[in-house]
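Honest question from a wet-lab person: if I give you the sequences of every part of a complex, can you actually get the arrangement of the whole thing, not just the pieces? Trying it with mine:
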Amino acid sequence: MKSILLIISFSFMTCNVKKEEITLSQLLSKGQWIDLSYDFSDQTIYWPNNPVGFKLDTQFNGITPAGFYYSSNAFFSPEHGGTHLDAPVHFAKGKWSSDEIPLNQLMGDAVVIDVTEKCAGNADYQVTTDDITAWEKRNGSIPDDAILLFRTGWGKYYPDKEKYIGTAEKGDSAIAKLHFPSIHPDLASWLIKNRKIKAVGVDTPSIDYGQSKDFKTHQVLYAENIPGFENIGNLDQLPLKGAYIIALPMKIKDGTGGPLRIIAWIGN
Amino acid sequence: MKSILLIISFSFMTCNVKKEEITLSQLLSKGQWIDLSYDFSDQTIYWPNNPVGFKLDTQFNGITPAGFYYSSNAFFSPEHGGTHLDAPVHFAKGKWSSDEIPLNQLMGDAVVIDVTEKCAGNADYQVTTDDITAWEKRNGSIPDDAILLFRTGWGKYYPDKEKYIGTAEKGDSAIAKLHFPSIHPDLASWLIKNRKIKAVGVDTPSIDYGQSKDFKTHQVLYAENIPGFENIGNLDQLPLKGAYIIALPMKIKDGTGGPLRIIAWIGN
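Yes, you can. This is the full assembly:
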């Protein structure tokens, strides 16, 4: 009897030691990071009626009087273009601005809802609760605190304005010509009532579809302090579940959004 | 005898299962993230001879004709101000621009070199190899692929220009009045030859001290594609070792730097 008891206690000690040994650095080395961010350039896509897009001005580029090489720029950008954050205050007065969103709200397990086939034949497709139900039938209920990403397949068109947003025209007249899929407002309302998510992201320019006039999905989610990530790249490289998202926006005080660097970790 | 063998095999099974069970999400829940980034506002600190700093312009803020609340801004910023990235190309022609730095170069185990006491009496202090030796005597050799952060104690002065950079004046005449500590060029050269680091960061405006004329530390490190993180906040909240850094800069194509969101994870 004594010898048996000794073996049991030894086995528990071994397990505890092994668990404590795993560091964040070691765990991350067992997988890879994928960059879901487009770069900012004169090709970066903004809303058609935005007077100016991203602009990079050279301040200096060459050899200084002191004899060493030096280069530096300044830039201009609207908050809402390219891969960017929508802070809840963008459509919900008094809710979080870009600098107020807690870091924990910007990172979590990724759930990827793939509606590529439905969107292929319909640029005005809006993701419905049925698409969520289909995902949950295969993968189980969306876990609490997930970051919900919608893969429409539109990423392959970026930055071709004609294909990605529906028109290459500029100005207010172009707004009526916007065509791209996104999230149906009814689904936004359903998510608020039935699931606990941290944020939503899309591989199109907006979390409301191109033809939206009232931006209801924005209004519904942002009123609940659920941020949006727009123009996300490389969504086709993510599994339907199992990836981990870290989304770090430029920390603009009182910002309604801003440039976002969003990355996904996939374990081996 | 048989019963003893059964217990042993069972104990190994238990251990294996426990090891595989640990996900990134679960590991991160055992610690906390600290934001090392200052926000961008009209208080953000830039080099005194930079004609313009951060500027946020309201594009719309109020109730739209359609009847819902909406707010949006555009902004201007030099690449090098506030909590920001120095891309190697900032001082080394042909080296990585902001968009070219691999994600893995921007994250790693933090090593914090605390020279607060030495800087308290000397705003022109430059961190030497002796300071590294002192750290290594207590903590062992700087691990490969570490992100080396220098804590001078200057963070407590931000954004008081007089105390943080040495002058509140603007223009070229103010450059000679810059006083703040940073990394000695001899240490930069020593690190290149003797240690393998991913990046360096400082809680002052520059990886060269305020009185530098040739920015030699920049030249030495950037020639080796080692990026710099400047104006880092909350360094006083990090342990000397054990924290993990993730630094995600705005992805500016051909950028020499840019706004940086840098965070540190500390396990419990």
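Two things worth pointing out. Chain A has seven helices and twelve strands. Residues 1-18 of chain A have pLDDT under 50 and may be disordered.
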